[in-house]
Backbone:
């Protein structure tokens, strides 16, 4: 998108589709499918207004599709909500109306990051000999410089580094390129996992990043709608629901455009389902004494960060084995998938007794003390034959392990785990960059 610097005025009538009047300043950008407006009374935020226009081939083909703005905005808003709830940093703030959303003001990095799971489209033209349907594991990453006049040429990492882009005061160097590369993979995998719940293959997608003008952070920006990806229900290209249907039209007729619109509507309806959990589960923490409460609260807090409900109970397998087994039966009886976490100091009978009497997973997480911890831990590590409980000493790690179990069937939990991996990697990358800067 190219900047448009003409001052419009602070109290214009909002574009069609915006419910509440906003104090709109200048139009910051206008692209083929959207406009970006400054929000005068909300510094650091912008309004992203979608258009009804649909284009292909860098706007060589373009048409009006009534209702597309609302469809695209609905799709983008749901996708960004999913990514944000997972833990991905984005520019998205909130949906404002049927056709517009509010976002953090970013200076856009002029690169399209393309991530591919299945070989198709332009990749086949640029790589003769590769058959359509070839599956990339790991994912195939490509970069394209946003330059309509030259048909968005493919760039190498070296070209991006040599461009030395400086946006919102941040110079795009190796650290920033690595973060965008790693983030693109994580974003694709999260959306791929989500679409798989609808028996739909995410074939490939393109995304863009921007630099937040207030924080100088690199965040996922622009939009992700049905122009951004290829979606094949049941992995079948003949059922494709994305913009490729429009690109492939030999003739644009009203009937053909209705087919395209129905496909876009199908995606906008299905994308809402990506925000819904496909499974349920819980962690039940059993503590031998309320003196272990602080330890157990850490487990509960960590479970909450992954969206996993957590219940705390007090019971002793040594002093009240009948009550321990009664509590076990209570949670086995309602059919909710459960992971038990046994928190018992000194001699841990709680975890082994639970493991020997339930088919559900049991995790030992003993609250070890400095004086006898080295001896006490053996009661959690040395199990009789036939018992399969694991032992994890960190409360946070025990919760993470439980979440990984639930993530096998609940894509929302898996997405949070995947984003957490990314954020840990990014924090290390930035810490290293900061350390190097101090050492120079």
Residues:
């Amino acid at each position: 998108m190219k900047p448009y610097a003409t001052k419009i005025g602070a109290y214009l009538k909002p574009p069609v589709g915006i419910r509440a009047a906003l104090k709109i300043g200048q139009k910051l950008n206008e692209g083929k499918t959207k406009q970006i407006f400054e929000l005068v009374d909300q510094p650091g935020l912008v309004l992203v207004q979608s258009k009804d226009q649909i284009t292909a081939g860098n706007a060589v083909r373009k048409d009006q599709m009534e209702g597309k703005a609302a469809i695209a905005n609905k799709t983008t808003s749901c996708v960004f909500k999913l990514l944000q709830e997972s833990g991905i940093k984005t520019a998205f703030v909130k949906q404002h109306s049927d056709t517009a959303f509010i976002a953090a003001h970013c200076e856009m990095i002029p690169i399209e990051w393309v991530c591919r799971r299945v070989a198709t489209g332009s990749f086949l033209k640029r790589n003769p000999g590769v058959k359509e349907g070839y599956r990339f594991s790991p994912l195939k990453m490509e970069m394209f410089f946003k330059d309509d006049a030259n048909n968005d040429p493919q760039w190498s990492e070296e070209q991006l580094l040599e461009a030395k882009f400086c946006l919102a005061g941040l110079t795009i160097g190796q650290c920033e390129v690595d973060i965008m590369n790693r983030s693109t993979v994580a974003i694709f995998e999260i959306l791929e996992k989500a679409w798989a719940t609808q028996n739909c293959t995410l074939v490939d997608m393109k995304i863009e990043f921007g630099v937040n003008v207030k924080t100088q952070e690199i965040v996922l920006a622009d939009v992700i709608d049905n122009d951004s990806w290829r979606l094949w229900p049941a992995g079948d290209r003949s059922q494709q629901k994305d913009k490729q249907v429009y690109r492939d039209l030999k003739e644009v007729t009203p009937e053909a455009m209705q087919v395209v619109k129905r496909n876009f509507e199908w995606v906008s309806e299905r994308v809402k389902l990506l925000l819904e959990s496909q499974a349920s589960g819980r962690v039940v923490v059993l503590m031998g004494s309320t003196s272990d409460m602080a330890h157990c609260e850490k487990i509960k807090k960590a479970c909450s960060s992954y969206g996993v409900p957590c219940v705390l109970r007090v019971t002793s397998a040594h002093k009240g084995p009948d009550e321990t087994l009664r509590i076990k039966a209570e949670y086995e009886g309602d059919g909710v998938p459960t992971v038990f976490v046994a928190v018992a100091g000194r001699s841990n009978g709680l975890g082994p007794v639970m493991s020997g009497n339930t088919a559900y997973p049991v995790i030992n997480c003993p609250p070890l003390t400095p004086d006898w911890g080295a001896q006490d831990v053996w009661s959690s590590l040395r199990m009789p034959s036939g018992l399969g409980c694991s032992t994890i000493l960190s409360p946070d790690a025990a919760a993470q392990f439980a979440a990984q179990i639930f993530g096998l069937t609940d894509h929302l939990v898996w997405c949070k785990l995947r984003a957490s991996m990314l954020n840990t990697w990014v924090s290390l990358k930035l810490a290293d960059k900061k350390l190097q800067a101090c050492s120079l």
About this structure: The first strand starts at residue 2 and ends at 3.
